[in-house]
Amino acid sequence: MAVPKRKSSKTRKRKRQTHWKTDAPSLVKCPKCRKDKLPHRVCPECGFYRDKEIIEVE
Predict the structure, then answer these.
(1) pTM for this one?
(2) CB proximity list for 46: less than 8 A, separation 6 or greater
């Protein structure tokens, strides 16, 4: 197994990790209530998924 010869400095490590960014989640409009929701998930506002009511929302 490979073992580092020398200690990596904090700066060197942080320079390498600057590209590990998280992306904002992609959102789509619910066709029923027009609210933003995650794709391929039940809408938390109306409870519908693909024109079927999956959960009852008060």
Answers:
(1) 0.58
(2) 30, 32, 33, 35, 57
